[in-house]
Amino acid sequence: MKIVVTGASGLAGYHAARACLARGHEVHALYHANEPLLPGAKLQQVDLSKPDALDAPVLSLFPDVIIHAAAISSPADVDANPELAEKLNVALPRRLAQLAHHLGARLVHLSTDMVFDGHDAPYRSTDLPNPSGLYGQLKLLAEREVLEHGVDEATVMRITILTGDSPSGARSVHEKLFHALVRGERPKFFTDEIRQPLSAMNLGEVLAELCERPNLHGLFHWAGNETISRYDMAAKILKHFGLSEDLIEAATCEGTGRPSDLRFELLPLVAKINTAPLSFDNQLQHMTVPAACRPWYEQATGQKAAPVRLRKGIDF
Ligand SMILES: NC(=O)c1ccc[n+]([C@@H]2O[C@H](COP(=O)([O-])OP(=O)(O)OC[C@H]3O[C@@H](n4cnc5c(N)ncnc54)[C@H](OP(=O)(O)O)[C@@H]3O)[C@@H](O)[C@H]2O)c1
């Protein structure tokens, strides 16, 4: 199967491309600023801030599936540059859905638990969204555009907070925690912010499986199988790496406007696919110390950190 992956240098797109390659598919991996290490993939650099930037590449490649993982993925970055976020997070997926429908190719588009306000968890895919910030509002708009223009070719996959190693080494929960510790900070984590973390590797497996299951189109929810507070996530990460819980501070998210509980109901998708959701303890096994934080870690613990290399240009 010929699969185009946008955002292949990002946390989700990288692991989706890896999983598709491992299943023997022809992968065309698109990135923007950071070239990922994806042996076997055909890499292409492209700036997707012009929504029609993909017209020519997609029409000439004539893919069977497009996995769309490129986005402005942080709510703070969306607030800082709403115009760019509208282009990348709404206009681009709309255009991809039109292209996919035109070609009869599948489009698998990623969305977020942040389309909900956190008051009525666990959320089913049929529940009414009510995003509280611009990031969630744009992602919701994109979901509607993709399902409208993609018709029977589109799958929207709402996912929860991602864990695991990213090509940048600075994207996921444990990577951000390490960078804060290296800066000498004592980061705060909310004890009442309930999440259902999802391993990016596990997501990659599910996305690859979805490529092979054209009957599974529409809107689905996917996550890990364990709910946990942000504080307990950080505490478990520290324990896993042999670091003290005293390095972080417990706080409450009351009054911050952050959705407090974003648990997902995994049915019906969990019954329809082979890939099983993972516990947080299982996800911990797939986290390594980011390259830039290894000297700090080795000094703090006296332990050697396992090397990981997912992007070109990082020396070890
Ligand atoms: N991470 C999470 O916890 C989470 C949770 C829920 C939903 N999601 C959703 O999942 C999807 C993937 O998120 P992620 O965390 O994997 O994102 P990420 O790690 O921030 O990666 C974003 C990707 O988009 C690419 N990109 C950004 N601007 C671009 C441009 N102008 N042209 C071409 N490519 C560009 C980046 O390329 P370069 O790095 O090469 O510039 C990178 O590959 C998003 O739709 C996000 O909303 C993520």
Helix content: 25-40%
Structural class: alpha/beta
Overall shape: it is globular
Low-confidence stretches: none
How many strands, what sense, and barrel or not for the largest sheet? 7 strands, parallel
End-to-end gap: 35 Å
Under CATH, the topology of the domain at 2-163 and 197-222 can be stated as: Rossmann fold
Strand order of the largest sheet: 3-2-1-4-5-6-11
N to C succession of SSEs = EHEEHEHHEHEEHEEEHEEHEHHH
- The total of helices stands at 11
Q: Given this structure, which CATH class of the domain at 2-163 and 197-222 is correct?
A: Alpha Beta
- Within CATH, the superfamily of the domain at 2-163 and 197-222 carries the name NAD(P)-binding Rossmann-like Domain
Structure, described:
The chain is an alpha/beta fold and 316 residues long. It is built from 11 helices and 13 strands. It has helices at 11-22, 55-61, 75-80, 82-103, 134-150, 173-182, 200-211, 230-240, 269-272, 280-284, 294-301; strands spanning 2-6, 26-31, 42-45, 65-68, 106-112, 154-159, 162-163, 188-190, 194-195, 198-199, 218-222, 228-229, 249-251. Strands 3-2-1-4-5-6-11 form a 7-stranded parallel beta sheet, sandwiched between helices. Strands 7-10 form a two-stranded parallel sheet. It has a two-stranded parallel sheet with strand order 8-13. Helix 1 links the parallel strand 1 (2-6) and strand 2. It starts with a strand and ends in a 15-residue tail after the last helix. 49% of the residues are buried. Residues 7, 9-13, 31-34, 46-49, 69-71, 73, 88, 110, 112, 139, 159, 161-162, 166, 171 line the site of NADP nicotinamide-adenine-dinucleotide phosphate.
